Amino acid sequence: MSRVAVTNAPSYTPEEVQRALERALQLVYPEGLQQLIRPGFRVALKVNMLMGKAPERAITTHPELVRAVCKAVLACGGIPLIIDSPGGPYTPAMLKLAYERCGFAAVARETGALLNFDTRVQRVNGVLGTPHNSAELLAPAIAADVLINLPKLKTHGLTVITCAVKNMFGMIPGLTKIEYHMRMPEVRDFCAALVGIAELAQPELTIVDAVEIMEGEGPSGGKPKFMGYVLAGKNMHTVDMVAATILGLRPEQVPTLAVAQATNPPLAPLRSEDVSVVGAPLSPHNVSLPLTARNTNLFEKILPRQVAKALARNLRPQLRFVKAKCTSCGICVRSCPPKALTARKNDVPALNSALCIRCFCCQELCPEHAVEIKRTLLARVLTRY
Questions:
Q1: Which residue, of 38, 174, 233, 344, is most buried by count of CB atoms within 10 Å of its CB?
Q2: Which domains does the chain have, with CATH numbers?
Q3: What is each CA distance from 20 to 6, 106, 231, 280, in whole angstroms?
Q4: Which residues contact residue 123 at a Cβ distance below 8 angstroms, ignoring those fewer than 6 apart?
Q5: What is the rounded CA–CA span in Å between residue 293 and residue 216?
Q6: What rounded mean pLDDT belongs to the chain?
Q7: Angle formed by the axes of helices 104-111 and 63-75, nearest 10°
Q8: Is 282 in contact with 245 (CB distance < 8 Å)?
């Protein structure tokens, strides 16, 4: 059985986080983390650095957990390298700003960990039979001796949750992520790509920041919610299964897990009962999901698939730009895969609904949270949550 450790972390105080991490690592590596990290090993810590925001916004991996992991790596004689490719241009200047705002630069100064500014990519080819078995990934992470996945648990408007597998999408450099959204506008296809990218990256260990998660319109526009957990495991798919349980979801409700279960052989266990959860007792929590992730259209159960899909397109949520919050920075326009947005001086962007593929990159990357997702009145009447 795949093992996932769950430990309690009542707060982000250094002592509580350190205790929770040490317990989780002990459960995953009973003989010590030295089983994974040897002296001199370069260890890439793939954090969630979606954008440069303060830790209390619950958008990014909390620096206190990153600090604790850096110390654990250093204790083994390893060299920790903090790395990610946030939304927008993948340049050293953008990375420096994000590292500072997220608190990772302070972690590096205090622990001696390194921050990645190397923007090279490397083509990685996988085993035939896996979804999307080739991609250009962040070269320094691929070159590292060990890759540790450090996601933040959040709800997500497109993929329902973002945790272990979705965090590996940050291995795709900068604006190249937009190409994936454009080539695969259907959720199932996009999630198959996410699973493929995660399998190409092959992190040896996943440690999840679930002390304070984000609920609602994640991954950036939701609200922080206290959970008090640190998760750890070797198999990122089983970690995602436990994360889904925490959020009160079944694995089949998370499209990346559905893809992982459908591969041959399956990358994820077919039943939650096949995952060995060790450590703290685990119970589902009630969380607010994004409007776009609240189950399926009612018509899918009573009408032919193509008819149901056509109705779903007409009932799908709409984007709304809040003028009072919008600063006309243009990030949403530059980040829109199908170029459905047009900048307007001193006004919110103009949206071409016919071009919009509902990837919600604009909502995800807006630094002012000026993009909202709304359901139509008809959708509220005819769909169930």
A1: 233
A2: 2-279 (3.40.50.11440), 295-382 (3.30.70.20)
A3: 9, 21, 9, 10
A4: 134, 135, 136
A5: 10
A6: 90
A7: 30
A8: yes
CA distance 319 to 371: 7
Question: Could you tell me which residues come within 8 angstroms of residue 291 by beta carbon, excluding any fewer than 6 positions away?
Answer: 157, 217, 317, 373, 374, 375
- Return the bridge partners of 197, or none: none
Task: Give the whole-angstrom CA distance, residue 106 versus residue 122.
Answer: 28
Largest Cα span, the chain: 61
pLDDT of residue 375: 64
pTM: predicted TM-score of the whole model, two decimal places: 0.89
Tokens of 288: 């607010």
Note the pLDDT tens digit of each residue in 305-324.
566 566 556 556 778 899 99
Nearest to 328 by CA among 371, 360, 374: 371
